[in-house]
Design the sequence.
């Protein structure tokens, strides 16, 4: 999701365009005067909203949908290249104007498809653009869209378990990172660094992943939420390495951060990971306590998150001989959902749990 460290009139205008609101409607949406918004529109980067208004803009962006975030980043990227943001004038002139608009719409749809693990549809949406234009033939707007498409392709490959190799998440993330670096968008580069750290963890390179997570947990290029997620994943790696007690302390700090940020889904996921850390210590009552919190507070209807949650639940249940059969039943259900949606990495994790418990 997009973040802004310091708002000017330029970013405020980009947000208005992303929300598809008139000046008057945008002012009402924020609860500020029309003259204030008009000033932002006129002066752009030469004016800065007051501190209290900066917070209002932060909240408006945070509460926006993924589609709005994508449009906002597109407008802001264009503004950084041209020095202005315009609903029409900022779109590149020439024969690809309508194609760029359609490409942006397809990225919105791909984000939704990926959130539902509809991989076939997302792959079709992304590849129709990735195979149409070589990035060397694109202008900055086109390269931005190509980089976003490649990063999303990496997400798709990661969720399907294609971690390493020429047609893998690692390769896609590296290509996207290079393009964002060329475009001069450091926040996007840092987000790709975080994704590459996840790939390292998934491929078993725990020490390398932990170092990357630790660095990114204090990286100002990232939002507070992404830094908290990096901290949580430090704990995940520690737990996988057997340092369960220390991992639980690190995870608890990340959990408190998610609570401060009012991020309920991340907060729920953190409790899921805390449950596994306590299972590793051998404290099954605490493990059951945390997994129950995760199961009762999770708000995502994403199949992959459901599989992760039920896999963790089954893992905890398997650790107690009295609930072993229940654990196997839960894991079998998670495996069926994972197979249905092509979640190969999750299937391998489930099989590994069955073999070791």
Sequence:
């Amino acid at each position: 999701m997009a973040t802004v460290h310091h708002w000017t009139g330029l970013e405020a205008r980009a947000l208005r365009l992303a929300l598809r609101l008139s000046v008057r409607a945008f002012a009402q949406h924020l609860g500020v005067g029309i003259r204030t918004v008009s000033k932002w529109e006129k002066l752009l980067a030469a004016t800065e909203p007051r501190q209290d208004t900066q917070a209002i803009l932060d909240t408006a962006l945070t509460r926006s949908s993924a589609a709005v975030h994508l449009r906002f980043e597109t407008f802001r990227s264009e503004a950084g290249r041209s020095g202005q943001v315009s609903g029409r004038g900022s779109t590149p002139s020439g024969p690809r104007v309508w194609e760029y608009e359609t490409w942006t719409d397809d990225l919105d749809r791909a984000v939704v498809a990926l959130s539902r693990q509809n991989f076939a549809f997302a792959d079709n949406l992304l590849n129709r653009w990735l195979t149409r234009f070589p990035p060397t033939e694109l202008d900055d707007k086109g390269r931005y869209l190509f980089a976003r498409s490649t990063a999303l392709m990496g997400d798709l490959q990661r969720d399907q378990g294609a971690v390493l190799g020429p047609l893998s998440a690692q390769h896609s993330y590296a290509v996207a990172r290079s393009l964002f670096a060329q475009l001069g968008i450091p926040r996007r580069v840092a987000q790709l660094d975080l994704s590459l750290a996840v790939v390292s963890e998934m491929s078993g390179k725990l020490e390398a992943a932990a170092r990357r997570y630790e660095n990114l947990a204090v990286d100002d290029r990232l939002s507070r939420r992404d830094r908290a997620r990096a901290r949580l994943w430090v704990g995940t790696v520690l737990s996988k390495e057997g340092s369960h007690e220390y991992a639980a302390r690190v995870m608890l700090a990340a959990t408190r951060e998610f609570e401060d940020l009012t991020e309920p889904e991340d907060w729920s996921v953190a409790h899921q990971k805390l449950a596994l850390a306590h299972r590793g210590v051998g404290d099954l009552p605490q493990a059951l306590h945390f997994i129950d919190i995760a199961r009762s507070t999770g708000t995502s209807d994403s199949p992959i998150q459901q599989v992760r949650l039920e896999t963790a639940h089954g893992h905890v249940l398997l650790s107690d001989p009295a609930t072993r059969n229940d654990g196997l039943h839960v894991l079998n259900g998670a495996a069926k959902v994972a197979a249905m949606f092509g979640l190969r990495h999750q299937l391998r994790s489930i099989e590994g749990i069955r073999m070791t418990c």
Notes: DSSP finds 18 helices and no strands in the chain. The CA atoms of residues 103 and 128 lie 9 Å apart. The mean pLDDT is 88. The radius of gyration is 22 Å.
